[in-house]
Amino acid sequence: MKENIVKFPLNGLNDIRSGDSSASVLMGLEHQLQVGGVIHALLSQIQALNGKMDSLMTENRQRAARVSEPSKDGWLDSKNAAKYLGISSGSFDKYRYGSAVKIKGYPLDGKILYKRDDLDNFVKLYAIKLQGLA
């Protein structure tokens, strides 16, 4: 006698023979669909997390670029302030902490920022001091 085989269009399901109990067949299908649904949900969450990570990495790169470049409103970090004055970082630190005429800095969240106007004033005052006029 020839067995009837029912083919299901779902991938991964075994052929179901017509002699199997319908309850066990349905339970097997339900289990495979649940597992497939869980896997699909996990893959969706992984894709969403990957998208979020890409977004955060792009945001961090943009933030790092903003911090490292001189601001257009006149505020500079110490590296860019030294560049602005045309001196090395070591010389900048010497003028910031060790000279009679000091470079004025403004602390903000553990970082010291400098105004371009203050740097320009420092150069003028330092020149006057060198000439002995102050």
Account of the 3D structure:
- The protein has a three-stranded antiparallel β-sheet. A two-stranded antiparallel ribbon has the order 1-2.
- It has four helices and five strands, in the order ββαβααββα.
- By secondary structure, the protein is mostly helical.
- It folds into two domains: 16-68; 75-130.
- The chain has helices at 22-68, 78-85, 89-98, 116-130; strands spanning 5-6, 16-17, 75-76, 106-108, 111-115.
- The chain is rod-shaped and about 105 Å long.
Neighbour order of strands in the largest sheet: 3-5-4
Provide the domain count.
Answer: 2
Average pLDDT rating:
76
Structural Rg: 35 Å
Give the N-to-C terminal Cα separation: 116 Å
Sketch the major β-sheet.
3 strands, antiparallel
Report the uncertain regions.
Answer: none
Oligomer status: single chain
Could you say which structural class the secondary elements and strand pairing correspond to? mainly alpha
Continuous helix count? 4
Q: What pattern of helices and strands is seen along the backbone? A: EEHEHHEEH
Estimate the global geometry from the Cα principal axes: rod-shaped
The share of residues in extended strands comes to 5-15%
Number of strands: 5
Helix content: 55-70%
